[in-house]
User: Fold these one by one.
Assistant:
Number 1:
Amino acid sequence: MNSSLLTGMKLNALSQSLHAQFEEQKEISAVDIEILALKIPEAADTDQLDYSESLLQKYRKCNFALNASPCYHQAVIRSYLDVGQQSRLIYILKKKYEYGIFVDDYSANMLMDWFLKAKNYPAAADVAFEVSLQEESSNPITRSLSLISCLQFLANAKPEQLNPPAPPKEEDDGKEVKIKVKYIRNDFFDHHFDLTNPQRLVGNALAYFCRNDSSGVGASCFTMGMALLHENGQVMVDHLKRVVEQKVKVNKDVIAWLEKLPANENAAMDQQVKALIEKVKAEHVDADATPLVSHLEKLLGAQLKQHESKDIEHLRGLIAKWAGERDQRYQKEQHRQLVAKKSSEIEAQLKALEEKEELLTFFKKEKDIVMTQWDGGIRKEPPPFTEEEMELKLMQRKHYKTYKKELLPKPRHRGPPKPRV
């Protein structure tokens, strides 16, 4: 933010310029929208923030959106945090089609740390959901923060937050209504990107982050995730059988969630699930009664000591690299716009010259223009005259004009009007 490129621009002037550019050219360059995202903290009020946010939506519809740099996503996230618009930021992250903002490890860590310290557990869980849906779990700090966010949300959420009531169904009046649609969606549910229920989203995140973790904490989180995601179906039965066969020790918090599973419509399946839960409760509960969140917080502390300084140095290097690349891309964009402007001016001049040449040479080429209507197939009927007759008519009109011009009386010079007596 201290570069001369950014300090020399004002948010109001930049946003108006980009809006006019989009209205005229239907495009906004990647470097321009990146600079706008970095200048969002200068917004004086919500109206100016709304105006800048509308430009983010317009940019998403441009071809240049394919060239968005990782700095752009970081800039949007940091800017909205700086202006205290966390709720709007969560909305933007969820609306991928409209805004196209994705979190990376560093921005996800920053957001979850921010929301956990503020005890805004639903927002922290939303960030964890985004990380799991993007299928990013390489950073151990991000993984631990995501698990803590999900567990804190489960522990503090109200029942209606985990399972929101379904919208009321419209009464069927028996009339058949036909609606025209462009295409028909296939009735398919992938249990990942199509999830909307918060409880199932938590389960999906827990199961995803711990799918390859064989430790006691990982196995406990994975079992809880499977319970929330698949409840008491066949998938849950198969998983509980593996827990029993592999003699996995799970945390006592997992048992509490297993006992909350709703009854299955299939009585035989329901009995099988309950028998497996009782067996896990009797033989496979970890003797350590420490809550699962406390285990994860302890693990996070060890990971921070090991990776925090490296991640900070790496992020600083990325920011310096992005700043240098931004200056270069800005110069290239300025050159591209200058070339495009000059090209349009040259094209306009060439078009004007062509029109002027056509006007000046019309009478010389009138015969060719008239005869082309029949030679080129524009008119199907035969021409009313031959080429010799056409030449004769042109010659007569030319001499007639000259003759008439010479016969015109010359205007007499009159002096000033005489004053009336």
Number 2:
Amino acid sequence: IRSMVSRCTVCEAPSRAISVHSQSGEVPDCPNSWSTVWTGYSFVGQTVQGGEGGGHSLSSPGACLENLRTNPVLECDSHGSCFHHERSLNFWLRSIHEAGQFTPPTPAQKLENDAIKNNISRCRVCRKLEPRS
């Protein structure tokens, strides 16, 4: 389990990082004068046992996960015990193919295996470049 738990580090950076999302299978570009920090998959949030959960702004770097895991949230307590909630629901930004952009939405679908990667929006985390002096 230790290899599956990310460690957070707070760093001072010259500019804030943002994530941009394509709503397609293509990784979007950073805005002009911004550089890539990482690319990933667009993660919206999750619910856990009892209907609790969390989400964040799609512009947050936490909304762009480098690795696509069907259950990306592992909860650990202060005693070092970690566990998954078996009934958690994870929400990803779905890709929309160009031909279907202005059609009525389809009912929610449970995606499995290869269909997951092919239907999740791609994203890129970017940071503003410092002006040259």
Number 3:
Amino acid sequence: MDRVKTAVAGARAAYNLGKTRPLEFRLQQLRAMEKMLTERKDLFSEALQKDLHKNDFAVQIYEMAGIVGEITLALNKLHEWMEPEHVSKNMMTMMDTVYIQRQPLGVVLIIGAWNYPLALVLQPLVGAIAAGNAAVVKPSEVSGNTAQLLAQLLPQYLDKELYPVINGGVKEATELLSIRFDHILYTGNAAVGRIVMEAAAKHLTPVTLELGGKSPCYVDTDCDLDVACRRIAWGRYTNCGQTCIAPDYILCSENIQDQVVKKIVTAITEFYGNDPQKSPDYGRIVNQRHFQRIMSLLEGANVVYGGKNNVEDLYIAPTIVTDVDPDSRIMQEEIFGPVLPIVTVNGVDEAIAFISRRDKPLALYVFSHNKKLIQKMIRMTSSGGVTANDCLIHYSIAALPFGGVGKSGFGAYHGKHSFDTFSHRRACVLKSLGMEKANNIRYAPATDSKMKWLLWLLAKQGEGKKLQLIGFLILGTLVSIVMKFYFAW
């Protein structure tokens, strides 16, 4: 395990040299990552096809496009993000320079997930690089082909000392977590998230946990069911259901349940044909362990569509389950596979109550023509993100923070939010050594007069131009007094 400690020590030594601080260095590294994705696109496609049966479309749209978009945004905006953020002053600091300076945290650890093994490693890495950090990257060993390719290619394009890749399983991850980092971003399940958080606490290391949970999808009776079910089928069965923000279950009225099933089946057939196993667009379960886990969730379930499987091919057909007991195992665990339970409720209020009794999910979806109903669902529930009348789309918007709440995680990234996550917001006040007489009111000996003046000055904060005008008036008065005494001599 010496290689783990050596890699982390090397990253810290390189960071301490100040190599990551200049804007141009950060831009150069981001351009190099972009070049890697362009030049090695075919290799990444091959690795992802082997790991998860992803075709070129899935690789380009669901893996690479988001990374390239993040890089492009950072290249265009990084000079602005690095600029000091000037803030409001109080009367005590009216003549001073007051601002927030974003500084890199240091050496960070990024632990990726296996379901989108390229995007969930490189997207946070873009933010870490943009913010000026060194970053140790730990891809998921479950998607082994992609992990090995990252270990091979990243050192060829990025600074190999500042951005080392550590491959391996539990042993290597445990070794990494025993070392002090300045921030850890982990994407995965809640059980491992607790381990990460416990290890980080020993070093008082801040963490961003991107977990998951059971993301609900409420379908209102006042809804275009054809469109809604098509979009739900896309969100559920993309990547064979192995998406952390996929709709995990449907809530709908009993009187539209049969229509919902029928229309989702129609969409599945449209997307993947009569035999999804033969479709190049339909993925596979990542390994035997997850295959068996998903199949065990179907034990005793009322499967109304799908359920076919092939253990050798790691294939599970798109599946729909109805008459679901809310207390059954399939409704207690995140499914993370191509299985969609439907739970019936009597209207939006019962749906809200159902959602609110459970852990806060990473995403929430609501389909309705009724804008007031949508706003009520947003107002009365809590989730990491919410999308109305579609699925997954909020993930694609770089201006929105992506992250969970409660047991679905905390902290966020994407776009500038990634830059902020990996930055320290340093409070800065720059004063001169002149005008010392004006500071006498804060020095001992204390008097009632000094206290009154200080309380008044400290109370005058954040009033913009009005405060600035008062400051100049007071300054003018002080200058007049000084000039009067000067000429009197």
Number 4:
Amino acid sequence: RRSSDLKTAPELVDRVYNRPTLETLQKESIKGVTEPRLLKTLAKQRRQQYMMLKQRIEREQKMFVISQKIQTRKDLLDKTRKIKVKKETVNSPAIYKFDYKRKR
């Protein structure tokens, strides 16, 4: 992109965030880090934080599937008749259809 399209200074064009316009730059000075070396370290830290967040989300999804599988196994201990509707996969537990039993 060109600086004229974004209405900003040429040295700030490659920024994805905190990209002030020329009007803002005339009114006040640039805030934050401007050195390329420090910008690289900040970008690296940001990437690492996103990686950690991604890993946590994946772990939470795996734990949810495992808890569903454990609950399914507990439900299977019932004496009622059941029919397997869907097989167990890596991402989901097996699905069973239970016969309705009237409570007395």
